[in-house]
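Re: the request from the purification team.
They wanted to know what the chain is likely to look like in 3D before they choose a buffer screen. I agreed to run a prediction and write the result into the notebook, where they can find it.
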Amino acid sequence: MSLTRDFFIALSKNQVLNSGAKKWGLKLGAGKVVAGTDIDSMMKSVKELNAEGIGATIDNLGEFVFNREEALEAKMQILETIEAIQKHGVAAHMSVKLTQVGLDVDHKFCLENMKEIVAAAADYAIFVNIDMEDYNHLQPTLDIVHELLKDYDNVGTVIQSYLYRSEKDLEALQNVRLRLVKGAYKEISEVSYQSKQDIDHNYLKLIKIRLQQDVFTSIATHDHVVIHEVKKFAKDNNIPRSRFEFQMLYGFRSEMQKELAQEGYAFTTYVPFGQDWYGYYMRRLAERPQNINLALKSLISK
């Protein structure tokens, strides 16, 4: 399992394959978990989710951005997506990775791009979630989040439970809307828990800390054991359902997503789209090696 995970994580970081994938269209089974390569196809998927009582957080995929031109292009695509959310009147908000808009180019440049994005979203009362990436980008990301929070209240970020420092980061952001996840990158033992048991334990610990605070929290997991524990904890502690939501990825456990929404829990699906799908898809294969079947079936059918 570990070798398989490491293999796909390594593939996700391969810039040559990532560049090539932009020319392929959705291949290798990626169409099952990526909602198209353009805004129109993505919006169709979001409207279908909304019809089931499910909201969306939209990720205009993009990675390996190391020059200003690509970062500015990504910013314009995100702004177009915000306009599309408003135009179509869908229940949706944005998720943005800072490396996509210039974090690896220049800190100030990235901050200015994000200010433009968050301000445009604020005009339409649209929330912007700043996704968390690997450990090397963690502190720079948090620095920009704190800068944005000085002027905007429609912005939040992600806490990854596999990092030792996450409880302190949670405390520093206790009045901010957050998404809690286990974590999708491979990190060294000096900074992160390595066993599933330790990661799961810390994840539930962080969730329970947050649920007792009067601030909205997104609990992003496909783990039915965690979901059951959260539901029980909320009920036992009289925590209103308006204080939290469950999130899952587009294309995963779709029936459970509908069931939770039907049970009256707030639910949001993470909806990725765009031509830059390769790195995202490889990380999904790393997380859930059974999804390799999707890729194999796609290859065999070609």
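For the purification team: Residues 294-302 have pLDDT under 50 and may be disordered.
Please add any questions underneath this entry.
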